[in-house]
Amino acid sequence: KDLTFDKLNEKIQAYITDPNELLVIKNAYDFANKKHFGQKRLTGEDYVVHPLNVAYILTSIKADFETLSAALLHDVVEDCNVNIDEIKEEFGPNIAFLVDGVTKINKLNFSRDSESTINNQRKILVGLSEDVRVIIIKLADRLNNMQTLFVHSEAKQRKIARETLDILTPIAGRLGINSIKQELEEYCLRYLKPDEYYDIVEKLNASKTERDNSVAKMIDSVSELLNMHGIKHSIKGRSKSIYSIYRKLEKGK
Fold it and tell me: Is 115 assigned a catalytic role?
């Protein structure tokens, strides 16, 4: 279903309360909406739905207002003939710097000739991002592109999935953004090894309730133990991701 700015705003207001910051985000959306007007994605949606989704993904890691604003604006320089100075004038140097960083990264052509090429490209990517928020926007941008990858040819799906798995997911892992890393890995597996992916999904669906119950039981017993000793705590638990199960199976476990 199409995401609206109101839905995004609701998520943002759960942790950003400064009215000035909220106004900047709203202005960034209005600016992007105006500049992308009439443009469509291959999915048939209005183009602005993409930057909205990128910002929405970033609310899950409580990104700050500058990151969210830059996420909403991240394609206007590349796709709408907007000058970076115009962004600087409207939104200040920090947001312009982030948008410029994402625009530069998007111009890179990745190749996967060898392990050393891949490592170098990761370094170039990190080097281009003097501000780590540039990479974080790029990861969310790629995640939304992976969510709509079905519109492309099989060859392009595989190319993008391979590049994502080799270059971007390790960076997400190093930054500790596991929610985005896991989702990227699962999409990559789905397009690179569809048979294995759907086989695991099928088996997991059959046992999802059992797995969730096991995790809940473990959380309860550890929690009980900590409470007995008066230790303050909060516990999170989840069952293993599809990609990590695939990796274990691949190693013969």
Answer: no
